[in-house]
Amino acid sequence: MLTHKQVWDGIDRLAARNKLSASGLAKRAGLDPTTFNKSKRITKQGKPRWPSTESVAKVLDATGTSMRDFVELMQGGSPGSPVGRGFRLRCTGLSEVESGACLDAAGFPLAAGWEEIEYPAIDDEHAYAIELDRDVAPPFYRSGDIVVVSPGSSIRRGDRAIARLRAGQVLFGLVLRRTAQRVVLSELGGNKAEEVVEAERLAWLARILWVSQ
Questions:
Q1: Is residue 44 part of a domain?
Q2: How many domains is the chain partitioned into structurally?
Q3: In this structure, are residues 64 and 18 in contact, taking their beta carbons and an 8 Å threshold?
Q4: Residue 107: closest CA among 77, 136, 150, 74
Q5: 82 domain residue, yes or no
Q6: 170 — phi, psi (to 5°)?
Q7: How far apart are CA 137 and CA 83, in angstroms?
Q8: pLDDT tens profile 1-54
Q9: Are residues 48 and 97 in the same domain?
């Protein structure tokens, strides 16, 4: 499992590799210069604040860095050096997730019905990948992207998540609120519409770790 420290260390090393400060890296990617400030890595309540997938994607694009290189930076290595331990990650298509063919009622992988892909540094026995066969939240998640999901991870406000409804519909969004009665998701696209999912409609909710484009 990736840790809060690993992700921020990776951003700091990426900045240093490009001879930039964390603020300079953010500006190069078109982000607010304070996006990666150390003061923003912990909330006022003392909880860890993670960089968004969008901000990471933007700095990787701005610096011409692949996801694999970034993972190596997070682990303390140099891009091109051997990754500590490769991981064969189970992978399926979005249509299989919608049909429920390869996941149990709680959103955990069943034994059969999977392909495997090489993916470094995800040390989570329950994690799996979903290959998107269509755009689901452009420009964030597009056809061909690989979305890595951890059904066993705790989910906090502000996390990106995937929800499967009992009727089979799959939603991608930002978790705004979660109670025993309902989950409120914000769309990742431009209009930021909210979707309220009552508990009786929800089959499962899982945290999105990464998206590889």
A1: yes
A2: 2
A3: no
A4: 150
A5: no
A6: -115, 130
A7: 31
A8: 578 888 998 999 888 888 888 888 999 999 998 999 988 899 888 888 999 988
A9: no
